[in-house]
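User: Can you predict the 3D structure for this chain?
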Amino acid sequence: MPRAAEALVRFAHDLGPDVIVVAGDLTQRAKVREFGTAMELLGRLPSAPLVLTPGNHDVPLYRVWERALLPYRNWKRFVSPELDTVTRVPGAVFVALNSSAPRRAIVGGRVDARQVRLAREAFAGETADVRALVVHHHFVPTPDGKGGRPLPHAARLLVAFEAMGVDLVLGGHVHRKHIHTSREIVPDGEGPGIPLIACGTTTSR
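Assistant: Here is the predicted structure, written as structure tokens:
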């Protein structure tokens, strides 16, 4: 929706962010035109570090051979050759893990052991005030039960992320705002748990 996009640009410039996080689903069907439009819009936002991670909509759904052989071709062409990234800004470090799983799931996601190790290494010895994790798919069921199944092994993943000292998890996927904490599925941990914050859809119906 053009009006929503224009409102987003105005809001971002009024806010003057230190960092911008886009937690996946830049596109609807991972088409060249859609990626071009998304990147043009992101280019109009304030000059700040961008943290981007793919969503399940950013890989082909119906283009079966592309999904099987080159699922991230357009993402790597338009966005980044890297699918898992570490971004450091003054006072914070953001680790973005690609949870889309085009060869293992249709819309659901996965976070594997290699990515957990990447996060552990990125956060190890980190003295930043905030350690933030960006993962497109959700860890906790939504209040109304919609939005599909959460990430497999979500409780085990959150135990690992708590041990790393993660302060915040940002995501998307269900296209509705919802806020939880890791205590909902890791009830025996120490402290209040990690806030799990998912944004709604920004510019599309």
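The longest strand covers residues 92-97. The radius of gyration is 17 Å.
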